[in-house]
Amino acid sequence: MLLNVKHLSTHFISSKGVLKAVDDISFSINKGEILALVGESGSGKSVTALSLLRLIPNPPGKITGGEIVFENRDLLKLNPEDMRQVRGNRIAMIFQEPMTSLHPILSIEEQVMEPLIHHKGIQRTKALNACYQLLEKVHISDPPIRGKSYPHMLSGGMKQRSMIAMALSCNPSLIIADEPTTALDVTIQAQLLELLKDLTNEMGTSMLLITHDLGIVARYAHIVHVMYAGKIVEKASIETLYSYPRHPYTMALMASIPRIDQDCRKKLTPVQGNPPDLFNIPKGCAFHPRCPKKQEKCMEETPKLIPLANNHETACWIYE
Amino acid sequence: MKQRVGFMNNFENTNDLCLDVRHLKTFFPVYKGSFFKRKMGEIKAVNDVSFQIKRAKTMGMVGESGCGKTTVGRSILLLNRPTSGEIIYNGINIMALNYQEIRALRKKIQMVFQDPFGSINPRMTAGDVIGEPLLIHHICQTKYEYQKTIAELFLMVGLDPGMADWYPHEFSGGQRQRIVIARALSVKPDLLICDEPVSALDVSIQAQIINLLEELQEKYHLTYLFISHDLSVVKHISDTIAVMYMGNIVEIAHRKELYDHPRHPYTRALFSSVPIPDPRLEAKRKPFIIKGEVASLINPPSGCKFHPRCPYATNDCKKNSPVLRLCASDTIDKTQHWVACFLSTI
Amino acid sequence: MTRHKQNNTGKFLTNDLQWKRISIVRALFKHKLSCIGLIIIMILLFMAIFSPFLAPHDPNEQNLYHVLEPPSWDHLLGTDDVGRDLLSRIIYGSRVSLSVGILSTLFSGGIGILLGLIAGYRGGIIDMIIMRITDTFMCIPGFVLLLVMAAAIGPGLLNIIIVVSVLGWTGFARITRGQVLQIRELPYIEAAAACGASGFRIMFRHLLPNSAAPLIVTASLSIGSAIMLESGAAFFGLSIQPPTPSWGKALRIGYSYLEIVPLFSIAPGLMITLAVLAFNFLGDGLRDILDPQFRGEIQRNK
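Above: the input entities. Below: the structure tokens describing the complete assembly.
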């Protein structure tokens, strides 16, 4: 088991109250596995990713509890120096907006070399060669020439490829990809995800893929966890989740997305209601105001993850 | 008469045609210098686009960044002045109208914008936002009528009229998009141009808005031009789909025909790139992934603009630009299937 | 997903829709700071309008036997250097200072905002022309202009108002234009154009309210600086002529007697400070109220 997260909670404190962005979640990733964290905006998936790397800004936010055991060490107990050795080196992150995540006035080769020089201590000339090899690997043509360009000269797809090159430079055990292709065109998205899949297979890297797109999950992930209002509400392998979704939120979500393979102009069944206000999460199960199958108990007590068959867990009182 | 692309075999029945766009071109000049500007080149955002939309039907326009689909929508509304071509709405050529007539036309053609946060003035209440077109076009005579119309519009899009005093930031994204739709409907338009109306919304809310748009179309016989990059949504809501690439329509057909028999390599790549939320189907699909990226619009490739990325490109494709040719007529719903490719026998 | 079924429509149609809009004035009173500011301004305006009734003595009545006296029952603030009652002079002085402050800000703001809106919204040649005119006006030195006007039409209050207006509009124009340039590409401006809104409507209903925040701050600061400018001009005899009282003049003249009768300088100084503070508070309140988040909250908690 490469990563084992236990009872992680991250809260944000503001004048309006306490926002429980991530509320007591636990999950694990094995070596070589691709785990998809699915949810909408406000579900807490991006905050989970930032919490793993301890990048939560401290005045408003705070990791209030839990353990993040990565390669047999609890990341929450590391001192800042050791944590910095982990970031970029053992765990790498690919962000959503390549425009704002790349340094605007450093050239691409500088940025790709940076983790190599900093973490591996390689000499500059050797790092430059390694950098060109990495750029080749992510299918950027003419690395010696392209490497000298600045981010604003490149297209979205190329920028994201550079980010992938940066992430892979130190051969990390885990890559966290936070909506890596949301801002890109669909054909470029397909190219990049194929690339990521091939490279992670080749290097045996695990991936935590964060997305809201159920299609991407079906194509690329092995295991799926569905998040809602800061909690994980369903965990399953992809075959199980898509064939037998159990949590009402998962079921409603699947029924509400249009699919290109379905033709009949039948109406979509939308998820009723509005996403929850995170400052006023309803008592009991956070989904109950929108749930078509709610019972008395759902309004009183928050459900825990209940194991079903086949490594399939769901947090819903119906299955108690 | 040059080629007419679109729906029906016989064009005599023009009463059924809501919008007829012929050889639309919208170019944006690129200037250099600050004081005395020299024209350096042009961005051919829309380069000879023709299509027709039948009344009370939906035409979907799909494509990636730089294809010009948003510019087509804006050119029809004259937000970007077209460089040449004809836009015939209900038999009237929009390009030939004067300022007053165009203002009157704004009652008939409206737009639903992409960004529900940015397309509403944050300092106006929801009631004011929806009522503004009513005031601009002097639709209501009395204050009572004005307030009554606004209440009706709120109900039409599924919002509580009691929220008319709320400011936009107090609404959720989906509710804001409903306000935008209500504003567009306030002047009782015929044609609604929807420019990525659900792209900025959460997945669970997208279905609500799509259903709302479909209900409104059925109830009020609205015609839609639905522009989006999300192929699944476009395929769900449209009757006919036009696929655009770098300013041209490369293929146009009924949605089912397009999915079952895509002729243009770009269309095939587009459909193949969209993942289906079903792992077993996904495992069986053969991916058709094209290399490279969209070329620059200032210096487009010669001949067929898609040839640098096309796995089937020949020398002919590098020299000549293909035009839309009829490749199957009388398919579903009597919609024709046109494609712009020399090798469309694939 | 209609929350109200069709048969409930009647309920909304028969009653007059009670739109719970809160007017700006009421909102200003709800905002703590601006409430204080408004009250002070109302007191000052009252003082200015009803000076003849409020002042205990004639402000111009000299009494050379009672020069530079400390406060007494007869003269609550003492007397000035020629025996005039200081309290009465302060009360009458509010007329000059307030009119300079308010009128010059109104004129400069009006001209500047209008030109800035047009320049920002239209762009192109019109923008260039307006900006070059603005640059030209910014180069005019205020003091020289005052001297020239004093020589041409004689010194007086009008001079100050004209000079401050003529020089002050440039600041407003630039700020407005900057704000408009930021906002005009936003989708809702385009949406308004797509609905058929005319240029005027877009400028005054959409661009102006969304550019207002820095303009309000500038306006309230400009009132204060206009009052201070008047005091500077008064020192050189370029402002209103004696014996008409003004706070600025009293402030300047009082400097010489600071050790003997400190109140001579301090009292008008305090009044100027109070006026400037009040307008700043009012400006803060206005800016907050125009912010929809604040407005929405007070409307809900009504």
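Note for the figure: The two ends of chain B are 29 Å apart (CA to CA).
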